[in-house]
Amino acid sequence: MNSPILGFVDADLEVLLNSYPLSETRFIPRTGEIVLLPGEKGSGAGSYDVVSVQYEFLAEAAVVDSPSPAALARVTVLVRARSKKQRTGSQEVAEISSRN
Prior knowledge:
Number of strands: 5
Distance between the termini: 44 Å
Order of helices and strands: EEEEEH
Number of domains: 1
Largest sheet: 5 strands, mixed
Strand order of the largest sheet: 2-1-5-4-3
Helix content: 10-25%
């Protein structure tokens, strides 16, 4: 099995925006929180509302005759882009700074 990842998926476009190794992730955003994501080549960057968090587990080979052990394979954070009116002041400052 590959290393588990934390992925951010746009809930409206159904496209992966960013992914990170779960082992390097310091926290998992919760539903209702706001995340600021970097983008690829100018797209995808911005402020997003966390819509839901999904945990995917895969079965591991059973060593003993008991309930099947499971391993965390992926955490998917579904996000929705915030409108300009919803953006935080820090996001607006970051946008202005990146233009200069």
